[in-house]
Design a protein that fits this description.
Layout lengths: L1 E5 L8 E3 L3 H13 L8 H9 L3 H9 L28 H9 L3 H8 L19 H14 L1 H12 L1 H45 L1 H8 L3 E4 L4 E5 L4 E4 L5 E6 L7 E3 L7 E5 L11 H12 L1 H10 L6 H8 L3 H13 L3 E6 L2 E6 L1 H5 L1 H10 L1
Parallel strand pairs: 1-5, 2-6, 6-8
Antiparallel strand pairs: 1-4, 3-4, 7-8, 9-10
Helix pairs in contact: 1-8, 4-8, 6-7, 7-8, 8-9, 10-15, 12-13
């Protein structure tokens, strides 16, 4: 499972690493809505929530589906230019870029949370196509009264919703984000400079590897492969590739692969993930290995001490070949350590690796 970006013909100078205040505001809103995803931001969330105006807090709930479970592409409006634009230096500049989206682009990006429209292929928009419009309203209603009301208002009067959203984001900036951004922008700019320097000196493959171990360049096929629990594909075409760092985003690694928009990789800068590369495939392998009842019983023994295959066979009433097959599955998943003692091979459960599975699983599904 992965998201791929076809970069055939991409020139290195068309790769840009640039911080985005609007994208970081999206992550700030997400962290406030889902603090459980970001235990490292608990102090920041508590501080902002404590001084938040109740009226602004209520307004956050009106459209929180744009940042709670889905990171709306509205927070990356420069990508709609197909490679011709970069993030602005200030939030105001990026809100101006948001204003430049057509009503069709704005509505389709805002309705992403309903999964009503084709995403990485060309399709009819909800403003122009009656079938897409009905489907958007139906799926929004299934999400609850809030999304249903927002979708009805959006489709009936896009300019009104656009004005509401801009005013809301400006109020968030005044209430808490301007202070946060003044602290984070220097860190993000430094990370962007490091990635840009690495790109120039060592090439795209190493620059991508420094972004996240979940991002890799497949030079043979001319594709960037992002290890995520899902599928998607996009193509550079005549545009470029944009890498946007975030300080508030870990463990989320987002990839904008909307049809016709510039591909964007929104990555956590300086994240713990850089030291613990765990692919979705590896995580699946480990959880599958542990799900078998017999292997669970073997793990109970192997967690306490090291055993040979013959000892395990005798203890569990199985044949050595049967035990070997189960040990092979656990070993392939990276859950066993082995050592030799004379002519005997001793197996033991890697308790540290098993203990990490909970956090690995959470990071994998949130990536």
């Amino acid at each position: 499972m992965s998201v791929t970006i076809d970069i055939s013909g991409l020139r290195q100078e068309r790769v840009a690493v640039v911080p985005s205040p609007l994208a970081e505001l999206c992550m700030a809103l997400h962290a406030l809505a889902e603090p459980g995803h970001h235990p490292g931001l608990q102090a920041w969330v508590t501080g902002v929530t404590a001084r938040l105006d109740p009226h602004l807090a209520d307004r956050m709930c009106e459209a929180d589906f744009l940042w709670r479970s889905t990171f709306s592409d509205l927070f990356l409006p420069y990508a709609a230019a197909g490679g011709a634009a970069l993030p602005g230096a200030t939030l105001g500049e990026e809100l101006d870029l948001l204003d430049k989206l057509t009503d069709e682009q704005f509505v389709d990006a805002a309705l992403e949370f309903t999964c009503a429209l084709p995403y990485d292929t060309q399709g009819a928009g909800a403003l122009a196509d009656a079938t897409s419009r009905r489907r958007a309203l139906m799926l929004a209603a299934a999400r609850g009264p809030g999304p249903a009301e927002f979708t009805e208002r959006l489709l009936a009067d896009p300019p009104r919703i656009r004005a509401w959203l801009r005013q809301f984001l400006e109020d968030c900036d005044e209430a808490f984000f301007a202070e946060t951004w003044s602290r984070l922008r220097h860190q993000l700019a430094a990370d962007a400079r490091r990635k840009t320097d690495l790109l120039r000196r060592r090439g795209l493959a190493e620059a991508l590897a420094s972004v996240s171990p979940a991002v890799a360049l497949d030079e043979a096929s001319g594709r960037i492969v992002i290890d995520k629990l899902g599928h998607g594909h996009t193509t550079i075409r005549a545009g470029g590739l944009l890498l946007v760092p975030t300080s508030l985003g870990w463990p989320h690694l987002m990839v904008l692969h909307r049809y016709g928009w510039q591909p964007v990789v929104h990555y956590p800068a300086g994240s713990p993930e850089l030291t613990v590369p765990n692919s979705v495939e590896q995580l699946t392998l480990r959880m599958t290995a542990l799900a078998h009842p017999t292997r669970m019983r073997l793990c109970r023994s192997l967690a306490r001490s090291a055993f040979t295959t013959s000892e395990l066979a005798q203890t569990h009433g199985m044949t050595p070949p049967e035990i070997s097959r189960h040990l092979s599955v656990l070993k392939k998943a990276g859950l066993l350590t082995t050592r030799r003692r004379g002519r005997y091979v001793l197996h033991q459960l890697d308790v540290t690796m098993v203990a990490r599975l909970g956090s690995d699983f959470l990071e994998g599904i949130l990536r």
